[in-house]
Each structure stands twice: as structure tokens, then as C-alpha cells.
Amino acid sequence: MRILYPFLPLLILAAAISGCSTGISREKYPAVVSRKELSSAQAASTPTQRQNAESDRLFCENIPRDAAGNVKYPYFQIHYNIKKDRVSFPYDHLDIIVGDHHYMTQINDWYMNFKDYADKTVMLEGYFLTINGHLFIGRNGPSCPYCTGGYVDFEFNSDQDFSEYTSGATWIRLYGILREATGHTGPGLSGPFYHLEAVKVEKIPYSGKGTITD
User: How far is Cα 202 from Cα 158, in angstroms, rounded to an integer?
Assistant: First the structure.
């Protein structure tokens, strides 16, 4: 298995971050759809639109429309098939394994240099997290450019049932592929949305550092 680690500049970045503040301006990355922008778009939608969007986790292959033919916002347009990718996933030949060390550094690099990681296969462990109807895997610690709530986390899309998982308490192992979707938050408002296509998420006994520092 190949293990990829970020280079020295990202280690310097990690060392400069403390608490839940990154020191990185969100305005420097305006093209990336953030969780804050998504929440604002959800708040502006009708209750029915919010319920429909959250039940579908906002991921779809085609443009969602209501009975009148109007586009329903917000939504993420994907270009993959989880069931198909699950069959061919190379569990024994992964591109990236994220361990207890440089956990934050690696996830920071995914956000900031995603083009270097697109379509790479990944395995990582962390807490199962749900935020505003979205799914994340992460650990406690200093934040990253788009992370909130004291977690270093990364969003994932899955077709599994997580009704028996507890956010912030269930420890999981995730096998997935780093993907770029197109996030649409309103008419003419769209941008890349980075996440993991989770081909397999399994509940495992806690076996790592729940709180990370690097």
C-alpha cells in the first residue's frame, strides 16, 4: 500500500494553526462551496425543499426539479455510481492511508490542493459525524479551512444506513474515493465541492487518536 504525506509547507501550516482557528481566510477560496453557504441556501428554501434535500443528502446525478419544473436548491451534482465503484474498489492497493500522525495536515492538503488528489483511493478512521443532514468523518483538534465545531473533518457521500451510528461517538473506518462534485446553491451560483465517495463505511472499536494535533 502507498502512503502519501504532504510536504514541508503543509507541516509549517499545521504548526501555525491552534485551537479552532485556522488563520486562513475563507475569502481566498471563493470558488469552493462551503458548509456555511450551503446552510444559508437551505435556510432560504421552503420547508418542503429542505426536507426533500436533506432526505437525499443533496447528492444527485441529475438536476432535481419540483412538480412545476423549477430547479430545487441547493444540490450537488455527482458523476459516479457508488454501487458500481464498490465492486471494483482496490482495497489492497490504496493510494492514501491516513494515520494518526499528520491527520490534520493531510486533510488540509486535500482541501487546498485537491487537483493533486482527485480520484485517489483512500482509507481513514475517525468519528462518524452528522452536521445539518450531511455526513463527515473526522477527529477532534485544530480546524482546517472549511471545518467547524472543533473537528478536523471531511464530508462523504454514502448509500449506507447510518441510523444506528451516533454522531461524535461512533468510531468508523471509511474506504472511499476523493471526488469533486458541482455544488449549486442558487441560480447562477455554483462551484466545486470536494468530498469522499464512500464505497464502504464500517463501525469498528475505537482504535486511534480521537484528538489530533498535527
Answer: 12
